[in-house]
Structures are given as C-alpha cells and as structure tokens.
Amino acid sequence: MSLIDTIVQGVLLGGLYALFAAGLSLVFGIMRLVNLAHGDLIVLAAFLLLVLVSTLGLNPFLAALLVAPVMFALGYALQEVLFNRTLGKDVLPPLLVTFGLSIVIQNGLLEGFSADSRRISTGALETASMAAGPVTIGLMPLLALLSAVAVIVGLNLLIYRTALGRAFRATSDDAVTAGLMGIHPRKIFAMATGLAMVVVTIAALYLGTRANFDPTAGPARLIYAFEAVIIGGLGSLWGTLAGGIILGVAQTLGAAINPEWQILSGHLAFLAVLLVKPRGLFPRAVD
Amino acid sequence: MTALLETRGLTAFYGDFQALFGVDIRVEASETIAIIGANGAGKTTLMRAISGVLKSAADTITCRGEAIGALTAPDILSRGVAMVPEGRRLFPSLTVEENLLVGAYGKRRGVWTLDSVYTLFPILKERRNNPATALSGGQQQMVAIGRALMANPDVLLCDEISLGLAPVVVRDIYAAFPRIRASGASIVIVEQDIGQALKVASRVYCMMEGRITLSGRPDELSRENIHTAYFGAVRHEPH
Ligand SMILES: Nc1ncnc2c1ncn2[C@@H]1O[C@H](COP(=O)(O)OP(=O)(O)OP(=O)(O)O)[C@@H](O)[C@H]1O
Ligand SMILES: [Mg+2]
C-alpha cells in the first residue's frame, strides 16, 4: 500500500468522521449542550435503516430519505421533553441525562436486535471503486466525503443566510434577549437538535454500509466525533471537517505501520493537536 | 376604557427579595410616558416584568384588556410590546443588519423595515455589515432601538437609552423620537436623567424602592415633588 493511497483512504475516512461530528458541533455551538448519546443515536438510525433495507428491500439511500424525518422528529421531541429541562448554568444535568439516554438506547437496541453485528447492504455499490494511478477510491467512501462537504455547505448556508440561522446565532449569543425578539429559544433548540438528527441519519447511512456495527458501537463513534470537533476548534464546521480528516489520516497512517495502532494513532494525533493548539486549529474561524 | 397596556398591583421577586410592591401604571395608545427613579428603584425590573423576561401573575399585566402577565417574552412581543433592553444587549456575533433583521423575527407588519430604520438612523446603513459590537456606544444604541422597531411595536419600552452616552449623542438619539411617535407607537422611556424624560413625556411616573411614589403631567409636578418622590426626602440641589 503506497503512502499516497494511505493518505487518500484517511481523507475519505475523515469524511465519515466529519459526518459523525457535524451534528454534535451544531448542537454544541447553539446551546452548549454536550450530547453523550450522539453516537448511540447514530447507531439507532443505522438500525432503522437496516430494518427498512432488509425487511422492505429498500435501497439504502431511499431508506435514509424516509428515516431522516423520523430522526428529525425524534431529535425535536427529545429536546422539547428532555434536554431543554436540563439546560441552565450547571453543566452537569445535560451530561447526566444524555449519558443515561445513551445507556437506554444501547440496551433498547440489544433487546430489539441482539448483540450480533450487522451491516447494511448496498449491493453492487459496496465494491464499486475507481482507480487513479496508485490510488483506489471506493465509491461509498467517496460519497461519504462528498456528503460531509455537502452537509457542511448546507449547514453554513442555513446558519449564515437564513432567518432561522440568524435566530440560531442570536439565541446562542443571548437566549433571553432573543426571546424579546419573538424567538422561542426552546423551539430553536428543538429545531437544532432535529437538524442534527438529520445529519446523524446521513452519518448512519455511511457507518452502516461501510462496516459492521452492533448496539454498543455508539460510544466509540462519539469519541471520534468529539475528537474531530475539538481538533477543528469549537464553533467552526469547516474546522470540524478538517478535524475529521486529520483523525482519519492519522488512523490510516497508524494502521499502515501496524494494524493494531489504528485507533491509538488517532487519539495520539488528537492529543498532539491539543498540546500545540489547545483551542483547536480553527477556533471560531470565519466559516 | 381599557388601556393599551396596564399593570395593576404588579409585584416581582428575585428569590426572596421583593423588587416591586404593587405597581400600577397605564399606557394609552400613541402616548409617551416616562418612568424615572434612582438606582435600584425597580425600573428595569418593571420593564422585565412587562416584557415577559420575568413571569408575573397573569392578571397583573393587561394589554388591551387581555391578561398577559404569565406569557413568555416572545408571546408578549407578538401582542405588540417590544423592548430596548438596558445595556443594549446586541447580538455580538451578528452584523448590524442581522441584528435589525432578528428584530423582525416575529413578522409583525408595519411601517418599520430595514429601509425606514436606515432612514431614521442613516449611519447604520453605512455600518450595516460591521459586527454590531464594533460600533460606538451611541450607534449601538441606535441598533438596539432599530431592532425593537423592526417588530413594529404598539408599545416601545426603552430602558435607559442614555446610559453611558455623551449628552450630544443622547440628544441625537432623542431627536429620532418624534418620528417614532409619528408611526403610532406608544413609548415608555425609563431614565435616571429627569430632564430628558420630562421633555418628551406627556406623563411621568416616579419610582422609589419598588413603588410608584408620584405620577402626573410634567407641568403639574414641581421640582420639589419630584425630588421627594425620587430620593425619599427633599434635597436642595438635584446633583
Ligand atoms: N437579577 C437580580 N437578582 C437579585 N436582585 C436583583 C436583580 N436585579 C435587580 N435586583 C434588585 O432589584 C432592585 C431593583 O433593581 P432594578 O434593576 O429594577 O433597578 P433600576 O431602577 O433599573 O436601577 P438602575 O437605574 O440602576 O438601572 C434592586 O434592589 C436590585 O438590587
Ligand atoms: Mg435599570
């Protein structure tokens, strides 16, 4: 395996990590809520996709179109009935509640789907790839990276070009004053979490088609998402993409040296960035 | 006759501390009233209660006869009551123009649009793409007033718009008030600066320690009355 191929595979993997992270970044940016169940929600969405694909024989992309609104509604409802009650000066309640939710989702999935690991089949797409010199680019990993870019472009357009996006930023700045402008902060938060769950559905599509997953796969996805957000710098979605790519490249480089080092080298890259730039690479960069 | 906005026996608490003790004020359509009082008199608390930042008993605040005391801030805005909060509270990550547009989030129609606010405060048009917090204090106050106007309010609550501003700047900002009044809105001006308030208001309420201690038309009130109501004892020199 050539170095250039390794790096390209890392960049593609980074697209997937950016998808894991974008929803987390969005929610944290708007309401300073750290959702510890984020990874489990990705896995939950992957199981919903699996059900549609395996029982109804739907195309996975079509299934994602159906699951996205369901996940949006779930995110909206979770925020309204659960997370909004935990927001306040104290940072502990949201952590405890989302940690509890993480356990609930994992156990619910274990009940419903057993501990077996599964995979969503994309048929011929699974192995489709193109060769460019020494590099082989798989179609699904490429689509994951392109989707990550599209998601970030889309979220940035929404945040910086629409009335809803202005309300997101105003509420993030000062929720009380936003209320005086006719904005219901709780509804804004619910919209944000709903949107994050749409991104989670896209992440789940590529997670579930790329490799095996099982009900306990969530926490590791959460860690990767966290690392991507922190490497990139809080508040910048493009930074999150860069963070995902750095993490992905570090992992494939580590794996090229010794397959056992894949995960470890990702964490080491994360720590190295934190040592050099404690606030991440692009803190509050202009998106 | 029901007033446009009225408080009756309004109380407010911060924890155990009572900040308002049965405040009664009335605002009629298209009038300007002033609320004056020393530091800590409860003026800002009164504004927060009316605008819904602080919750009150439902029937202690009415808008055109409807009990609105228990509503949230956005629901009170939708009844036509907008606020320029103390300290301006602009959104720092938004530009001047975005701050103004957020003011229109409630989609109330009327004469106030980006264009008419820019006509009222032309300097804001020049600075429209700057971050709001990059402006001078006076310009920021104009943004705060413009942002509240964008909701096309029937009642505009202005909490200490002269705070921390040079007298000439204050005069410039007050120069905009006749045009705001001409749009039909009632204005409630909260000030510590008695002179400014008495000039523009048709009625004045004076507050002390959470109570209204005096009210009336500016020409009915003697300086001595006001100072007694303001400080609790007759002072010989105002400052
Ligand atoms: N958040 C708060 N928590 C506790 N007490 C408060 C709070 N805000 C105000 N108070 C108290 O309530 C009383 C009224 O304060 P308020 O801010 O309404 O006065 P004010 O008339 O607006 O004064 P100023 O002219 O200085 O703005 C004061 O005694 C103040 O200390
Ligand atoms: Mg005050």
TrEMBL record, chain A:
Belongs to the binding-protein-dependent transport system permease family. LivHM subfamily. InterPro entries: ABC_transp_permease, BCAA_transport_permease. It is a multi-pass membrane protein. Its main location: membrane. GO terms for molecular function: transmembrane transporter activity. It is found in: Cell membrane. This is Branched-chain amino acid ABC transporter permease. The chain crosses the membrane at residues 6-29, 36-55, 61-79, 91-110, 130-159, 188-208, 228-249. One of its GO terms (cellular component) is plasma membrane. It comes from the Bacteria. Keywords: Amino-acid transport, Cell membrane, Membrane, Transmembrane, Transmembrane helix, Transport. GO terms for biological process: amino acid transport. It comes from Shinella kummerowiae.
UniProtKB/TrEMBL annotation, chain B:
GO terms for biological process: L-amino acid transport. It comes from the Bacteria. Residues 5-234 form the ABC transporter domain. Transmembrane segments: none annotated. PROSITE patterns: ABC_TRANSPORTER_1, ABC_TRANSPORTER_2. Keywords: Amino-acid transport, ATP-binding, Nucleotide-binding, Transport. Pfam families: ABC_tran. Belongs to the ABC transporter superfamily. This is ATP-binding cassette domain-containing protein. It comes from Shinella kummerowiae. The lineage of its organism: Bacteria, Pseudomonadati, Pseudomonadota, Alphaproteobacteria, Hyphomicrobiales.
